[in-house]
Amino acid sequence: MVRRSQTEVAVLGALSVAPMTGYAAREAIRDVLGHFWSESFGQIYPTLAELERVGHIRRQESMAYELTDSGRTRLRELLAEPAQRTPPRNGLLLRLFFGRQLGPEACRDLILAARTEAEESLSRYAFLRAEVAAEDSPDTPYSLLTISAGEHAARATLAWADESLTALNRLEDPR
């Protein structure tokens, strides 16, 4: 699946929840999907225009876009394709890989910052989980799956950070 189709999935998926303006779609993608998916705002508006041109969405009098039948079909087709793996780009791990150049103290600071971020993420996910669980929506079980993935990733980061801090301590005091 090329980048364009991934953007189509995000836009069509957002519009499958409810009709919305381009701005609202952009905000929904940032605020709701942003916990696990980032989309370039520069891609959203051209994608909306293209989807409208080919008839997958139409603009209502209120200027909100809504899915058409062909748009719903296109979304299902795109969702049925295998998910494309993207190569990871992790600035923290890049720095730690060359950590000898930084030294243990600077590496410790980087890991502690990652640990703090993971703790904050867990807190945000707990709030989000409660908020989503309170909704009476057929989308709730699926939303909870993505929240669970974020929680697991944050807990894994915490475990990794603790393990890495212990390893750095051994570098400084090999006894």
TrEMBL record:
<dbReference type="GO" id="GO:0003677">
    <property type="term" value="F:DNA binding"/>
</dbReference>
<dbReference type="Pfam" id="PF03551">
    <property type="entry name" value="PadR"/>
</dbReference>
<feature type="domain" description="Transcription regulator PadR N-terminal">
    <location>
        <begin position="11"/>
        <end position="77"/>
    </location>
</feature>
<dbReference type="InterPro" id="IPR036388">
    <property type="entry name" value="WH-like_DNA-bd_sf"/>
</dbReference>
<protein>
    <submittedName>
        <fullName>DNA-binding PadR family transcriptional regulator</fullName>
    </submittedName>
</protein>
<dbReference type="Pfam" id="PF10400">
    <property type="entry name" value="Vir_act_alpha_C"/>
</dbReference>
<dbReference type="InterPro" id="IPR018309">
    <property type="entry name" value="Tscrpt_reg_PadR_C"/>
</dbReference>
<dbReference type="InterPro" id="IPR036390">
    <property type="entry name" value="WH_DNA-bd_sf"/>
</dbReference>
<feature type="domain" description="Transcription regulator PadR C-terminal">
    <location>
        <begin position="89"/>
        <end position="168"/>
    </location>
</feature>
<dbReference type="InterPro" id="IPR005149">
    <property type="entry name" value="Tscrpt_reg_PadR_N"/>
</dbReference>
<keyword id="KW-0238">DNA-binding</keyword>
